[in-house]
Amino acid sequence: MTAILTPLHLVSAASGALALCLWFYTRLQDRLPPGVRGLRCLFEIPSEKAWVKSLKFNRQHGDIACGSFLGYHIIVVGSAKIAEDLLDKRSVNYSDRPRSVMCGELSGWGKIMLLSNYNSWFRAHRKWLAQDIGSYATVTKLHRMIEFETQRYLRCMLDDPERAQAHVRKNLTSIILRLSHGYVTQEGEDPLVELAHTANSQLSLTTAPGAYYADLVPLMKYIPSWLPGAGFKRKAKEYAAVLNDMVEIPHNYVKSQLAAGTALPSLSSRILSKPDLTEELEDSVKWATATMYQGGADTANSVAFAFYLAMILHPRVMKAAQEELDTVVGKNRLPTFADRQSLPYIEALFTELLRWHTPGPMTLRCTREDDTYNGYFIPAGSYVFVNIWGILRDERTYKNPLEFRPERFLGENPETHPGNACFGFGRRKCPGYFLGHSSVWLMCAQVLAAFDISKCIENGVEITPEHDLVGETIVHQAPFKCSIKPRSAEVEALIRQEISLEQ
């Protein structure tokens, strides 16, 4: 006997299937990592220093925790092992960025590698950067230029030590501008150095977690800028103008230098010189070199300025490092890259600096597909926050983590090197790792050889600065005063002599 399917049968079957799907999805929701759900999430949104709030969240709910609200799932990771398991070993699923309305779309930063998804655009830019600065072998070819720029920096510190932070910023931005656009910064304040600083400050503000409701409600991008509450759109317009200058001004500089036949070697000039250059290729290299310029102008100088704070707060470490330099290098010259292998304490000091000061305290990814980890369900489209700052202060990994103690990386049983965490994980690991690692190391070594750094004394009172991070996505040590003096008349003469060398 043939069964007859009536509309009632079809409706019943469809209802059953829907109920089964809802039941299955509800069960998956129940398997989310521990944390908070619903309106309680609003009270977990940090108003500032998201890394501190995230550390407390992980301590309360575990190394992998979750907040869920209105269909959004925020996964907060607080251990190196889980971060490596997800971002390194499952990197295909954990290499995208969440949609960024305020920064990526309204302010125009979406083409920078920092905010781009892991796609062909991102991979092309990363490939170009890898060809120029993607290994110690490629960076070795740049040693002479880095040493020259560092010597310029020492002279600035000698002449005007009160502007230490500005000199640090100029030194590392000068290095990256030589590589990205073949641009040699001018003496004193340079407009491209200041432009990158302004743009990066705005970038940090616009990518702060929970700072703009437009990132949670994307339709807000369409409201008129004159409406009350639409101040974010007016800010975005200002930020977009600064970003446009940061991208276009150095790019047009390279094009004018190429036309005049005076362009210095750089990533930009190398690709723009190709005979088969198209508009699409030119646009791509313009943004790739902007990425190089933007990234190198901020995170490295954040670490480098924190170095001065570390030496002020830990004079024992500074004296131990100077003793090693005096013994190995002597006092008749400044240390160079050739001395690096012979300076284990300086290397340990630098490694501890990377652990102690974290310029990017958190990294944010977005999952492409549903995933499970240790029995927990991680839905597609989840925002995955990894608390790098917290990982590098994990007492299970580092003994007395709040102390600045280079000795933890010496001896037969050194503690875990912070490099993988502090430079990011997986396919989004900082493409400037080798350049930043080399540039900041040389700056630290030469400053220690040339200067004594100590607390500032005002009106007979010694001022002790605090280790205080300011910023959001990219952070810096809050400005502080210090005393920076040459170690001897001989080293002062040495700095002035060295700076006269040809490029």
Automatic annotation (TrEMBL):
InterPro entries: Cyt_P450 (IPR001128), Cyt_P450_CS (IPR017972), Cyt_P450_E_grp-I (IPR002401), Cyt_P450_sf (IPR036396), Cytochrome_P450_fung (IPR050364)
Classification via Pfam families: p450 (PF00067)
Ligand binding (heme): 430
Pathway annotation from the record: Secondary metabolite biosynthesis
CDD domains in the cross-refs: CYP64-like
Keyword Oxidoreductase: yes
UniProt keyword annotation of 4Fe-4S present: no
Gene3D superfamilies: Cytochrome P450 (1.10.630.10)
GO molecular function, one term: monooxygenase activity
Alphabetized UniProt keyword annotations: Heme, Iron, Metal-binding, Monooxygenase, Oxidoreductase
Cofactors named for this entry: heme
Family stated for the protein in its record: Belongs to the cytochrome P450 family.
Protein name according to UniProt: Cytochrome P450
Organism: Hydnomerulius pinastri MD-312
